[in-house]
Specification:
By secondary structure, the protein is of the alpha+beta class. About 55% of the residues lie in helices and about 15% in strands. The chain has 13 helices and 5 strands. It has a 5-stranded antiparallel sheet with strand order 2-1-5-4-3, sandwiched between helices. A hairpin with a 5-residue loop joins strand 1 (about 120-130) and strand 2. Helix 4 (about 50-60) packs antiparallel against helix 5 (about 65-70). It is globular, with a radius of gyration of 18 Å. The termini are far apart.
């Protein structure tokens, strides 16, 4: 056990307990095993930089709190690293996606950077833009499958305001750009409540259109900073490169 891993583990446990989360709940929100989370808290394992970012996002830490967690883990604070370094990492991940041979490799390249931009989970989908819209989601291990199955079971696509906005808009958007929570239908409120139970309160949607199909990547976390230009541009680049790579591999063809 090193001094760095020990101090990181104590701070991680402090933030988790402060929010009333069990190890199981935090592990699920950060997409990590409960056993590994336990090892991180006790100092038996040292986190990667991407893991620190995922945990900070799952905990809903402020930028200052995230920096303290990064420093405790032995990494520079994000502001000290500078925008150029995160830009370099986005560029490197985009190149990896260009050469990826499988959808999972594209998702892995996304996981290398997206947590630093506040993204805890993301998934993909294809929307057939017709009189009776059809939405087929694709996961590739990037999002808890149980929630996506619930999305189908509850037929949320029929009243999902994010899908409605995607059909109308030609640009990407943060959730708060298009949602008036006071005007949501009961079904839409239930949908957002279900993701809030997983610690997700904000998101970013990017789409690409071709031949009557709308390919979508939906990225979400506890707190995406819609005012931060680095975050917006980074999500634009990462989202568009992931969709382009999956389109190249013909991984987002609609069912039926």
């Amino acid at each position: 056990m090193t001094a760095t891993s020990s101090s990181f583990g104590g701070l991680l446990r402090h933030h988790r307990c402060e929010r009333g989360l069990s190890q199981f709940e935090l592990a699920a929100a950060a997409t990590v095993s409960t056993r590994h989370l336990s090892f991180l808290e006790t100092g038996r394992a040292r986190p990667s930089e991407a893991m620190v970012a995922r945990l900070a996002s799952a905990l809903g830490l402020t930028p200052n709190g995230s920096d303290h967690l990064r420093i405790a883990a032995g990494f520079y604070a994000r502001d000290a690293r500078g925008g150029r370094e995160i830009g370099d990492r986005i560029f490197e991940s985009a190149l990896m996606m260009e050469n990826a041979a499988t959808p999972v490799a594209i998702v892995d390249a996304g996981h290398d950077v997206l947590p630093e931009l506040g993204v805890a989970h993301f998934f993909f989908g294809t929307l057939i833009d017709s009189a009776k819209p059809q939405f087929d989601w694709a996961n590739f291990g990037a999002f808890p499958a149980a929630w996506l199955q619930s999305y189908d079971r509850e037929r949320y696509a029929m009243t999902d305001p994010l899908l409605a906005a995607t059909r109308i808009r030609r640009d990407s958007f943060f959730w708060e750009d298009v949602i008036d929570r006071r005007a949501l239908t009961r079904s839409a409120r239930d949908m957002f409540d279900s993701v809030a139970a997983r610690g997700i309160f904000s998101g970013f949607v990017l789409s690409q259109r071709r031949e009557g199909l709308i390919r979508i990547v939906s990225m979400m976390g506890s707190r995406l900073d819609a005012r931060d230009q680095v975050t917006r541009v980074g999500l634009e680049i990462m989202g568009s490169r992931m969709l382009a790579g999956l389109d190249r591999l013909e991984a987002l063809l609609p069912s039926g």
